[in-house]
Structure formats: C-alpha cells, structure tokens
Amino acid sequence: MSIPPAAAVSRRVSLQLAAPDGQGVPVDAILHYDSTDPYAVHLVFLTGADAVQWAFARELLTRGVSGLAGIGDVQVWPSGRIVDEPEGGRTPQVCISLTSPSGTARFDVPLTALTDFLSQTYTSVPAGTESAYIDIDAELAMLL
User: Fold this and answer.
1) 26, 15 Cβ separation under 8 angstroms
2) Distance from C-alpha of 38 to C-alpha of 57, rounded to nearest angstrom
C-alpha cells in the first residue's frame, strides 16, 4: 500500500487570552496540520525563545466551531462574541480552553481564521481518508 505524499498547512493567528479583568491579552500562535500526523492539529504559541505547543484532534476543533466539543484538557466552543477584524468587517469568535496541572487558559480565535485553516486541512486530507496517510509498518517498527 502506498502512502500519499506529505502535505502541511500552517496559519498564523492572533488569539486573545481571557484575562481575569475581562480584557483580552493578544497572543500570537500558529495552527499547524501535517498529513504525516493526520488526526492531529498543533497549536504553537509564539512565546519568545521557546514555543509552547499543544496537540489535539482535528475533529475536536472542527466540532467546536458549531458547538461544545471536548471533555478533557482541551475544549472548544463558539463564544457568542463578535469582534472587529483588522482588515475590516466583523467575525464571531471561537473559544479554546486548555487545562494543564498549572491551570486553565481560555483563548478566543476568530471563526474565519479557524474555518479557513480547517478547510485547507480537509483539502489536504479529506475526512475519512486519514488512515491512508499513516505508514503502519513504520509505526510498528518504532514500537518494536
């Protein structure tokens, strides 16, 4: 069985970290998807010298666009907030909540940026075809 050629999708996004005082703190991040890990999306926070990275299911992010998704460390849901875009216009926001032993952080991401990114990932690897992108022999070799 042949593995389709690798493809990657990345998009820089400006998130808003929900602060205790109700103000959003801007945080730059990159959403990244790679067909060699076809079920996962990586959210990379650009924090200076070191990047902080979270990985979670692409399907969780997709489901969170329209309703609450996730029951563990990562939850995604539509926030109900609409904000001005830098290019003009207004866009709804989607919340991404990340929980670690250090605490929980909630970020707002523009719906348009998120859906554009997800559309590109599904163009790269259509839903239901993810398993074709996994080299089972290589994965087994790593385990053994």
Assistant:
1) yes
2) 9
pLDDT at 22 (0 to 100): 73
Q: What is the helix (H) or strand (E) element at residue 82, kind and residue range?
A: strand 74-84
Q: Which CATH number fits domain 8-128: 1.10.1740.10, 3.90.550.10, 2.60.120.580, 2.30.31.20?
A: 2.30.31.20
Segments of the chain scoring below 50 in pLDDT? none
| Distance of alpha carbon 10 from alpha carbon 75, whole angstroms | 21
Coil/strand/helix, residue 36: coil
Calculate ∠ Cα 25-31-34, nearest 5°. 165
pLDDT at 111: 94
Write out pLDDT tens, residues 109-135. Answer: 999 999 999 999 999 999 888 888 777
The β-bridge partners of 105 are 98
Domain range summary for the chain, segments of one domain joined by +: 8-128
CA distance 82 to 98: 21
Alpha-carbon distances of 117 from 12, 20, 87, rounded to whole Å: 9, 29, 17
Q: Which of 93, 90, 91 is nearest to 77 (CA)?
A: 93
